[in-house]
Specification:
This protein is mainly beta and 121 residues long. The chain is built from one helix and seven strands; from the N terminus they run αβββββββ. A hairpin with a 5-residue loop joins β5 (81-85) and β6 (91-103).
Length: 121
């Protein structure tokens, strides 16, 4: 006859884990530069691997000293070099795509901006 543990006897390893360690963890901010929230529109232009020109409209979410976070209806390939323009088609400079993630119905796009003039966005 096998004996099963009762409530008064020892607990299994799974149930003895404190409830705090099962709670979701918060992500820590590992950014080395402060982010500043902005809300403006830009055009992002690039040429894909097949030579096709693309121009997508995007909204800026925030910026730092060397980067910008955008939100767009369309994705941009990682590592792609893009050219930024104002809504009036005034060239602002270039940037490279560091990440592009679908969040809800929009893509969140992180860009690195090497040109100091564009950093003043």
């Amino acid at each position: 006859m096998s004996s099963l543990p009762t409530a008064s006897q020892g607990r299994t390893a799974e149930s003895s884990v404190p409830a705090q360690s099962q709670a979701p963890t918060r992500r820590t901010n590992r950014r080395s530069q402060q982010r500043i929230a902005i809300n403006t529109h830009l055009f992002v232009s690039f040429q894909d691997g097949k030579g096709v020109q693309h121009r997508i409209r995007a909204r800026t979410v925030d910026r730092s000293k060397s980067g910008v976070l955008l939100q767009s209806d369309e994705p941009v390939p990682l590592g792609q070099v893009v050219y930024l323009q104002t809504p009036n088609f005034i060239a602002m400079g270039r940037a490279s795509i560091r990440h592009c993630t679908l969040k809800g119905l929009k893509y969140v796009i992180g860009m690195y901006i090497p040109d100091p003039l564009v950093r003043g966005l």
